[in-house]
Amino acid sequence: MLKRVCTLVLRRGLSTLNSDSLFRVHPSVSQAIAEKHPVVALESTIITHGMPYPHNVSTAKEVEAIVRAEGATPATVGVIEGTVHIGLSSEELDFLARYDGSMKVSRRDLPYVTSQGLSGGTTVSATMIAAHRAGIPVFVTGGIGGVHRDGQNSLDISADLTELGRTPIAVVSAGVKSILDIGRTLEFLETQGVCVATYGPSKDFPAFFSPLSGFTSPHQVCNADKAAQLIESVLLLGIRSGVLIAVPLPQEHAAAGQQMEQAIKTAVAESSARSITGRDVTPYILHRVSELTKGKSLQANIALIHNNAKVGSQIACALAKLPKKRKPTSATQQYGSNILFFLWQVVIGGINVDFIAKGRRKTLEFGQTNPGSVRQSYGGVGRNIADCLSRLGQQPLFISATGADSHSDAVFNHCKHMNTSAVTRLEGERTATYCAVIAESGELSLGLGDMDIHQQITERYVSQFEQQLLWSTLVCLDGNIPISTIRYVCSMAQQHKINVWYEPTDSEKAGKPFLSDAWKSLSYASPNLAELCTMNKTLGLQTPEGNICIFDASVRTRLMMSSGGLAVLPNSPDQVLTLAVALSRPLLEYLHCLVVTLGPGGVLVCGEHRAGSVNLKPRKENKKRKLCAVHYPALSVAAHETINVSGAGDSLAGAVMAGIVQGRDTDTCVGMGLLAARLSIASPHPIAPVLTPHSVDPHQAQGHSRSQPRFMWID
Q1: How far is Cα of residue 333 from the mean position of the Cα atoms in its chain?
Q2: CA distance 18 to 24
Q3: Full-prediction pTM beyond 0.70?
Q4: String of b and e for 380-391 (b: at least 16 CB within 10 Å)?
Q5: Which has the higher per-residue pLDDT, 525 or 553?
Q6: Are the beta carbons of 202 and 210 closer than 8 angstroms?
Q7: pLDDT value, residue 599
Q8: Residue 302 CA: distances (Å) to CA of 61, 77, 260, 291
Q9: Beta strands 546-551 and 556-561, pairing class
Q10: Cα 471 from chain centroid?
C-alpha cells in the first residue's frame, strides 16, 4: 500500500526527483513568491511525529485552509525521497501522514536524508532553512524547541535556537513548551542575537498552553502591522538572524490551557522521579499529558496551532503590503549557480487535443478507407515542452489558451502534473485540435489542425505575467503564438537580459521572429533543417532548392526545402552537416546557440566554443566568439518500436532545456534530449509518461550507447 501511495505521489509530477536539485518548490508557492503575494511556511513534524493519523493530516489541511482564508499561500515543508519540498500537494500530505518510516529532520539530518533518499517531517530549523532558500520570510509553528531542563549540565539545546540566530526568518509560535527551561531559552536567544517580541497588548512571554510563563519578552508588537514592520526592519538591516513572534493562547482556551499546564507539571515530576533523561524525556511527557488529560491535550494543541496560523498569515499579508525598500536577490547570487529555487522557466505556446490515426499498411491509399487505429492524446508544442520540463524536475509556468469546452476539461485533467495556472479558458472559442494520419512506420502522412485559439495568446494576455518573465531563467516560445507576442517577449529579453528559446513548430512559422530585429534577442533556437532554411530565407539569405535526403542505417527522411539560390544539393550525411553549419553561421551572429534536429541523422549543436565543445550555458554578455559545431548521431530505434514521431523534437528540446537550467555539460544535455526523444518515439503520447530524470540520465539509463560526437569548427 505504501509503495503504491508513493508511486502515485511521484507520478502526479510535483514530487519528481532530480539529482541536481535537492529543493522542489510547489508551483503555487513559486507563483505567489514571484508575484510578491504573501506566503506562510509550515513545518511537517506535526504531521509525521506530532499527532496520530488521521488527526495529523486533517490538522495540516485545516491549517493550510486557514492560511488561504487569510489571503496567503501555504507552503508546508517536508522531505519526500530525498527532495525537500517547499509546498506539498494533498497526496504528498497524505503520504507523509501515513508513512511509518518518516524521519524527524532537523538541520543536522538534512544531508543524510537527502543523500539517502529518505522521507520525513521537517522541524523548525530545517523548515527555516527551506523557507529562507525559497524567499519566504514568515514561518508558523506550534512552539519552538529550547534549552531543556538541566540544560546547563546536559547541554541539551534545540537546534531551533541556533537556527534563529543565523537565518533571517520570522517564526510565529506560542513561545516554547513549558517542559523546557524558558528562562535559559530566552537567555540563549539573546546570546544568538534573536529579536523576541510578544504579540498582543502584553509583554508577558507565553508558555505554549499558558499565556504566562513568568518571564517577560524584550519587546512587544500589538498587531499584525507592527509585527510586519519589525520583520521588514530586520530584512532591511541585513541582520543574519531571525525574529521570534510569541503568540499567547487566546482567552477562550485559557481554561483548557491551564489544565494542560497542570498535567505537564505532573508529567515532568514523574519523569524526574523515574530518572528519565535525554531524548526520552519529551516523548514520555507528551504521552503522559495525553493520558492525564484523557486526550484533551490534542484538541488544545490543534486550537493553538490554528490560532498561530491565523496570526502568522495576517502578519505575512501585512508584510506583503509594505512598500519594498529592499532589492530581491536571486538564488544564484545567494547560493551559487546550481538550481534557482524560486526562479522558474516560462513556456508560451500552444496546447492541442490530438487525434492520431495510424495505418496498418506500409503505404496509405488516399481516397479510400485504410485499416488502422485512432487514438486521442494531448499535444501542442508549448504544452509538450512544458510537460517534458515538468517530468524532468522543473516547474515551468505554461502560458496558453483553450476554449471553455469539453476538450479543455480533458486537457486540464491530463495536465494536473503541470503548472497550468496561466492557461486561460475563453468562452465562445474552440480548444485547438489536431488530426495526424501516420503511416505504419510512424512517419506523418497528413496533418489537419484547428489552431485559431493560439491567436488569443496575445501580447496583452502574456503581459499579465511580466513579473514571472522577469524572474525566469529561460523563456521558451513556440511558433504558434502571434508575431506581436513574440516581439513583446523579445523586447523584454533585450531590456532585461532574459534568455529566450524559440521552437519554430514548422517551416511555415519558423520565420516569425526574423521578420524584424526581434530574432536578435533570441538566445536559443531548435529548428530542423527545413525550418533553418526558412529562417535564412526570411533574412534574405541564400537557401537550397529541392529535396534533401538524410540517411542512417535503416531510415531515410526527405525534407522539402524552400526555393533559393544554392545550386548544389547535399546527397550524403557529410554534405547535410556542411549545409546545416553553413545555414547556422549567419544566425550565430546574435543567437547564443542553435540545436538543429536532423531526424534519424541526429542533432547538430552550433555555438560558442568552450572546452572542446559548444557552450550551452546561458550567455551573460554578447562578445566576439570562436564558433564550433558538434554532431551527435541519433540513438537507434527498431522499426517495430516506432509508434509516433510527433513529439520527438519537443521531447529533445525540453530535455536539453532541463539539462541547461540544471547546469549540465553539453554532452549530458544532448544525451538527455536524445534519450527523451527515443522514449517519445516508442510511446503513443508526444511526451512519454515514463519520462523521469533517471530515464534520461546518460550515465544511468539502460541500453544507452551512441557513437562519439563529431566536432567541427565554424569559420
Answers
A1: 19
A2: 9
A3: no
A4: bbbbbbbbbbbb
A5: 525
A6: no
A7: 85
A8: 12, 18, 13, 17
A9: antiparallel
A10: 13
- Taking the C-alpha atoms of residue 477 and residue 381, their distance in angstroms, rounded to an integer, is 9
How far apart are alpha carbons 62 and 302 in whole angstroms? 10
Domains 1-136 and 144-325 share a fold: yes
Q: Minimal CA–CA distance to 462: which of 548, 367, 398, 389? A: 398
Nearest to 580 by CA among 714, 671, 443, 444: 714
Question: Cell for 363?
Answer: 503505404
Model confidence at 320, pLDDT cuts 50, 70, 90, reads: very high
- Which cell numbers hold the place of 347? 513556456
CA distance 293 to 541: 84
Residue range 144-325 forms a domain whose CATH class is: alpha beta
The Cα-based distances of 397 to 90, 382, 457, 464, 714 in angstroms read: 20, 11, 14, 13, 36
- Give, in order, the Cα–Cα distances in Å from 630 to each of 34, 578, 588, 670: 37, 12, 14, 10
547/122: higher pLDDT: 122
- Residue 55 has a pLDDT of 85
Class of domain 345-714 (CATH, top level):
alpha beta
Residue type at 572? S
Q: Which three cell numbers stand for residue 53?
A: 493519523
Beta partners for residue 438, in sequence order: 358, 444
Q: For residue 400, what are the β-bridge partners?
A: 423
Q: What percent of the chain has pLDDT over 70?
A: 84
CB of 432 closer than 8 Å to CB of 380: yes
Summarised one tens digit per residue, pLDDT across range 263-312 is 877 887 888 788 776 666 766 777 787 777 776 666 777 888 999 999 99
pLDDT value at residue 558: 37
What pLDDT, on a 0 to 100 scale, did the predictor assign at position 444?
Answer: 72
> What nine digits make up the cell of 25?
518548490
- For strand 219-221 and strand 345-348, is the pairing parallel, antiparallel, or unpaired? unpaired
Q: What is the pLDDT at residue 16? A: 34
Supply the DSSP symbol for 552.
Answer: -
Task: Report the alpha-carbon angle 657-662-667, nearest 5.
Answer: 70
Cα separation values, 664 from 66, 261, 338, 604, 700, Å: 41, 55, 9, 18, 15
Contacts of 669 (CB under 8 A, 6+ apart): 616, 655, 656, 659, 660
Query: How high does pLDDT run on average in the chain?
Result: 83
Cβ within 8 Å of residue 91, ≥6 positions away = 5, 8, 9, 12
Instruction: Tally helices (H) and strands (E) across the chain.
Output: 24, 28
Cell, residue 234:
530586520
Locate the domains of the chain by residue range: 1-136, 144-325, 345-714
Peptide bond connecting 482 to the previous residue in cis, omega within 30 degrees of 0: no
Measure CA 398 to chain center.
12
Q: Exposed (0-12), middle (13-18) or buried (19+): which is 214, by Cβ within 10 Å?
A: exposed
Query: CB–CB of 202/220 below 8 Å?
Result: yes
Percentage of the chain exceeding pLDDT 90: 48
Number of neighbouring beta carbons within 10 Å of residue 512: 25
Contact 655, 675 (CB under 8 A): yes
Q: Is 499 exposed, middle or buried (0-12, 13-18, 19+ CB in 10 A)?
A: buried
- Residues assigned a catalytic role: 43, 177
Axis crossing angle, helix 296-321 with helix 254-273, rounded to the nearest 10: 120
* Domain 1-136, CATH: 3.40.1790.10
Structure confidence by residue, pLDDT tens digits, 24-59: 888 888 878 877 899 999 999 989 987 888 888 999
pLDDT at residue 653 greater than cutoff 90: yes
CA angle 213, 271, 57 (to 5 degrees): 70
Q: Where are the strands (E) in 360-432, listed by range?
A: 372-379, 397-403, 419-426
| Tens-digit pLDDT profile for residues 445-458 | 787 889 899 999 99
